[in-house]
């Protein structure tokens, strides 16, 4: 993780891929409520001083503490947000009842159509989940681009980016995969990536994304910070699996398509990258498939497990 040259923004650079592809998550870190003012009751001073005491008062002994102090542990709110979030209590999420988009990655416009239709289905499923969990739902924006991106604020140097409520997808990556590799792998990769970035949007709506960034900023040591990053990224991949698992009968996710998706998530690790931000391919497969099999966000509490499970 590094702080960018833009004030108030934290960028998380992610490396996830069979090849050296990357994703970035950026979140604006600003106070939501602005400055807080408080009023204090004022007592006027008496016009004449009270009469002096003629006897020396007996000092009152300081009482011994009889219970725990009232100090709030550091990051208590953030820890509750990531560990005990209402998202984990909603149960199996509803199926969007959407089929896989029929557009194929043969042109930028068709890539855009695929992601636009997929995003509509993701919104349909997750909107109900957010309401049941007690959070406000708002759909993310989508920008599918080719060539050099115009938005430099979000540092769009990767194939898939979630930044300030916008999902950015680089169509050039999909076009290259369609031309050079297995077209079915291209489809499973596209489905995984858009749902993974949407997982970050779910984290943003539930407060998990911001709380995890805060925890990471207060952790001492690079290795420990990378563990926190992997918890966040593996949860997004798990939530990607949750959506697909809920909709598998309608998508449909079965047969050869499902076999290729399992291969895809089993081979998207960061073990080749010195910046271990996303997790080894074995753990990536484990969390993605756990989400798929459960179709329940409760299966995605990556913050409650030992570091070895998110290595």
TrEMBL record:
The keyword Repressor does not apply. It comes from the Bacteria. Keywords: Membrane, Signal, Transmembrane, Transmembrane helix. Pfam families: Zn_peptidase (PF04228). Its main location: membrane. Residues 35-57 have a biased composition (Low complexity). Residues 35-73 are annotated as: Disordered. It is a single-pass membrane protein. It is found in: Membrane. Residues 1-22 form the signal peptide. This is Metalloprotease. It comes from Kribbella sancticallisti.
